[in-house]
Amino acid sequence: MSIDFVIRLIGMIVFCVLGVFWGASIGRIANSGPDIIPFPVEAYAITIGLVGALFGLILTPLITIRPVRGLRALLVRVPAQTLFAALIGLIAGLIIAALLAFPISLLPPPFGEVLPFIGVLLFGYFGVAIFIVRQNDLFSVLSTVFSRSPAALDKDEGGSKWAGGRTILLDTSVIIDGRISDIARTGFLPGTLLIPRFVLNELQYIADSADNLRRQRGRRGMEVLAQLQKEPSIPVRISDIDIEGARDVDDKLVILARQLRCPILTNDYNLNRVAELQGVTVLNVNELANAVKSVLLPGEILTIRVIQEGKETDQGVGYMDDGTMVVVENGRNYLDKEITVNVTKVLQTAAGRMIFAKPEE
After folding, report:
1. At 207, is the secondary structure helix, strand, or coil?
2. 301-309 and 337-349 beta bridge pairing
3. Phi/psi class of residue 336: alpha, beta or left (left: φ > 0; alpha: ψ in -120 to 50)?
4. At residue 308, what are phi and psi to the nearest 5 degrees?
5. What separation in angstroms does the CA of 168 have from each of 85, 158, 182, 256?
6. Residue 181 belongs to what H/E stretch?
């Protein structure tokens, strides 16, 4: 038996009883006049009671269950920090309204009777609005005030406080990629790594795939998550928060990032573009990898091992230690040999950095 059906039955009984009492009152009033009324009091009570029962059966969910479900869905989407800030703002606004209620009540009527109630509404609203807007500053002040000691404060500023300053959403692609574990271990990701339940479900779906390659990628992602959770210096949190009205995982991530005001860590190009168009900050692992590669300028000398032929005639291709491709002119004659080359051009592409060079004479 569903809760919806139970609420309907309760509403039907309540409105039926109210209708019977209301109908009996109307019947007594109608029969108290000098004119003869063909309908007795019981007829009024039964008729209006049946109308009340029908009204309760149909409309009770609209005034009970659906508003509660809507409020619950709203509270699930709102971050806990925002809810706490709104509660503090409401309490502060009500305290100010209570302090002003007595002097305002001394005003002549009707001002002394109406203005205290209006003050409660206005100060409650402004308290919630102001504290939500300045919630980040509020929590920064609270964390400073309640610090244990100056030594602990210095430690927090250099460590856990810096790491706990924000939340970072993880995409499925970056978990499967595996490099997130090494990056987070170095300390270059300040914040709590948040994995929503729908991302974990997608990762589990990939791990259970019939395709062998997809199954291996999914299992590698599970292993990466297990490694991250074992690291005491990396705060990892799995949340059951979900986004209603969106089915695609990428859409849910973008909406959740906008609600939580946090960046998305990914290496998915399409998700990167969609998130940027909607004003969401994106941390791209591929862009980070390209940014930390060695910077070479035309004219510099380096040693490279030519391992394969290039696309053009007489070209050879080698790779640096960081994976950067080096295209060597006339390098076909030096296959499987280490040679000294002179950098002639550096080209930045969407796939990464390419270096063009020629053998040193």
Report:
1. helix
2. antiparallel
3. left
4. -155, 170
5. 21, 19, 16, 11
6. helix 179-186
Q: Give residue-wise pLDDT tens across range 150-179.
A: 444 444 444 444 444 578 888 888 888 888
Q: What share of the chain is helix, strand, coil (3-state, %, to 5)?
A: 60, 15, 25
C-alpha 11/C-alpha 168 separation (Å) is 45
CA atoms of 344 and 8, how far apart (whole Å): 79
Distance CA 27, CA 46 (A): 10
Query: pLDDT tens digits, residue range 221-260?
Result: 889 888 888 887 788 888 888 787 778 888 889 888 888 8
Alpha carbon distance 209, 43 (integer Å): 67
Contacting residues for 147 by C-beta, under 8 A, at least 6 apart: 153, 156
Q: Would you place residue 122 in the very low, low, confident or very high pLDDT band (cuts 50, 70, 90)? A: very high
Query: What one-letter code names the amino acid at 65?
Result: I
As given in the structure block, the two tokens for residue 317 are: 């291709």
Q: Sign of dihedral through CA atoms 245, 249, 252, 256?
A: positive
Distance CA 333, CA 60 (A): 85
Q: At what angle do helices 65-77 and 41-63 cross, to 10 degrees?
A: 20
DSSP letter, residue 292: T
DSSP state of 333: G
- What is the reported pLDDT for 91? 93
- How many angstroms separate the CA atoms of 126 and 157, rounded? 32
CB-count exposure of residue 186 (10 Å: 0-12, 13-18, 19+): exposed
- Residues 173 and 221: their CA atoms lie apart, in Å, by 9
Cα distance between residue 21 and residue 36, in whole Å: 22
- pTM of model > 0.90: no
